[in-house]
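Methods — Computational structure assignment.
A single polypeptide chain was analysed. Its primary sequence is given first, followed by the predicted tertiary structure written as structure tokens.
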Amino acid sequence: MPHKLALLLIVFPAYQAWDLYQLLANGSAFHVLTETAATVAFLGILFMVIRERRRAAREFEALRTSTEASTRAQTERDDASQKSTRDFLASMQMQFAAWKLTPAEKDVALMLVKGLSLEEIARIRESGAKTVRQHAANVYAKAKLEGRHQLAAYFFEDLLAPSIPR
């Protein structure tokens, strides 16, 4: 509990008790009654303030716990996402090896699956567009696929989708 609130809880009731004692000894009944009412009102307000502070503290703790849980979940999702990406790339590399693609054909195949155009792949690989086109044709022939759409579908549908009995 903060020091100011503790001081208030000690000083004000002590002052009120002393004041009521003085009024009973020397004062009028009406003044005693008003001071008693003021003291009861103060205690009631003090009770509500304390109750509200406790409620706010509980809500803050729940919010802090929720934030920590959200942060942990985000980290776990990030870790799971990274693992999923690594697993996906590893499965693609295994399939490229099964198709017996050359290193150049593997690079071209990966960039085709990513959606890059033949011209973009040529610029990245610093080679000619005809060379990239030939590598792409070799990939399709070795994989027994008809083009980039089937290549992408092969990985996104066949490798990621659950097996369905036919």
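Note: The longest helix spans residues 29-98.
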